[in-house]
């Protein structure tokens, strides 16, 4: 697997200088009461033995950096159902033993067989799109394979009724990406105005097999992490009028989120366990 180094960087909060922002919580530290820690990975469902390598990398990291949730960002299975259960159990069976829950969304490869229904139980998905509350954090898991009126109406109602301090949206196809793919215009048109209006702080996607992080647009931070194990895609220049891209890394890896009462710290982690990017999101 190929890694491209990027200097560690943190976003400022609310226009404050970087000197006024407390340092990030140390990795490997104890979980603070009320804090949510999340692992997120996309485009990992490549089957054994390579998928097992990804699962082992996440397991090694989680033993030193506790998490309560693994969030699968889509393309959880490239095998059209042929080996999903075996690959999932061998690669991620450790999650239950470690007490780590699971949530997921469906990617374009997932819906090629049985509409992705065969994955729902393993990924603890009640349906194609849903919401789940974790204390002060609410996850909005969406199906970007089809951004029709029914789902968009549901999203508007769910966001409008949320009283969570933190709102995180997750779906497979990014609104903004510049690599093997470009962003989805229907998502920009239909969903990004809702994210801004209802104060979603963080939007996570996969699909492009790399890592990208964009300057917040209308206070919403967009992050792409499709480096779960499939072949990597090169980084290309972003078109106007995309938000400015702050980090772009063609590398395999995953995300680690620490959501506290006052801030969210996000880390991009290489498969070797090295931090290759850090960002801060305010409430």
Question: Secondary structure elements and their pairing?
Answer:
Elements: E1 36-41, H1 50-64, E2 69-72, H2 84-92, H3 94-98, E3 101-104, E4 130-134, E5 137-141, H4 149-161, E6 166-170, H5 185-190, H6 192-197, E7 202-205, E8 211-214, E9 221-225, E10 245-249, E11 253-259, E12 264-270, E13 275-281
Parallel strand pairs: 1-2, 2-3, 5-6, 6-7, 7-9
Antiparallel strand pairs: 1-11, 4-5, 8-9, 8-10, 11-12, 12-13
Helix pairs in contact: 1-2
Structural overview:
The protein is an alpha/beta fold and 283 residues long. It has one domain: Metallo-dependent phosphatases (Purple Acid Phosphatase, chain A, domain 2, 4-Layer Sandwich), CATH 3.60.21.10. It is 19% helix and 24% strand. The strands form two sheets. The chain has a seven-stranded mixed sheet with strand order 4-5-6-7-9-8-10, covered by helices on one side. It has a six-stranded mixed sheet with strand order 3-2-1-11-12-13, covered by helices on one side. Helix 1 (50-64) links the parallel strand 1 (36-41) and strand 2. Helix 1 packs parallel to helix 2. It is globular. 45% of the residues are buried. Residues 1-20 have low confidence and may be disordered.
Key features of this structure:
283 residues, Purple Acid Phosphatase, chain A, domain 2, six-stranded mixed sheet, 6 helices, 13 strands, 19% helix, disordered N terminus
Q: What is the subunit organization of this protein?
A: single chain
First-to-last CA distance: 35 Å
The level of helicity is 10-25%
Order of helices and strands: EHEHHEEEHEHHEEEEEEE
Kindly report the CATH topology: Purple Acid Phosphatase, chain A, domain 2
Structural class: alpha/beta
Number of helices: 6
Task: Label the CATH architecture.
Answer: 4-Layer Sandwich
β-sheet strand percentage? 15-25%
Biggest sheet strand order reads 4-5-6-7-9-8-10
Our count of domains comes out at: 1
Cα radius of gyration in angstroms? 17 Å
């Amino acid at each position: 697997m190929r890694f491209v180094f990027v200097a560690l960087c943190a976003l400022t909060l609310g226009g404050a200088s970087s000197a006024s922002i407390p340092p990030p919580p140390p990795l490997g530290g104890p979980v603070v009461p009320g804090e949510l820690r999340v692992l997120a990975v996309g485009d990992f469902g490549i089957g054994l033995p390579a998928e097992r390598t990804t699962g082992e990398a996440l397991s090694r990291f989680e033993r030193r950096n506790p998490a309560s949730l693994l969030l699968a960002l889509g393309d959880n299975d490239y095998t059209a159902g042929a080996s999903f259960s075996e690959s999932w159990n061998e690669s991620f069976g450790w999650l239950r033993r470690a007490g780590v829950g699971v949530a997921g969304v469906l990617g374009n490869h997932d819906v090629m067989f049985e509409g992705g229904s065969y994955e729902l139980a393993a990924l603890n998905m009640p349906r194609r799109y849903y919401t789940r509350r974790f204390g002060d954090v609410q996850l909005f898991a969406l199906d970007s394979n089809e951004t029709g009126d029914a789902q968009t109406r549901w999203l508007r109602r769910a966001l409008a009724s949320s009283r969570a301090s933190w709102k995180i949206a997750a779906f497979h196809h990014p609104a903004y990406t510049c690599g093997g793919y470009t962003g989805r215009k229907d998502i920009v048109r239909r969903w990004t105005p809702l994210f801004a209006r209802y104060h979603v702080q963080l939007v996570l996607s996969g699909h492009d097999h790399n890592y990208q992080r964009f300057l917040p647009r209308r206070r919403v931070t967009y992050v792409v992490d499709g480096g779960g194990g499939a072949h990597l895609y090169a980084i290309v220049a972003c078109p106007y009028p995309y938000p400015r891209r702050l980090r772009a890394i063609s590398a395999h890896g995953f995300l680690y989120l620490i959501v506290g009462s006052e801030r969210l710290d996000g880390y991009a982690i290489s498969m070797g366990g090295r931090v290759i990017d850090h960002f801060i999101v305010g409430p």
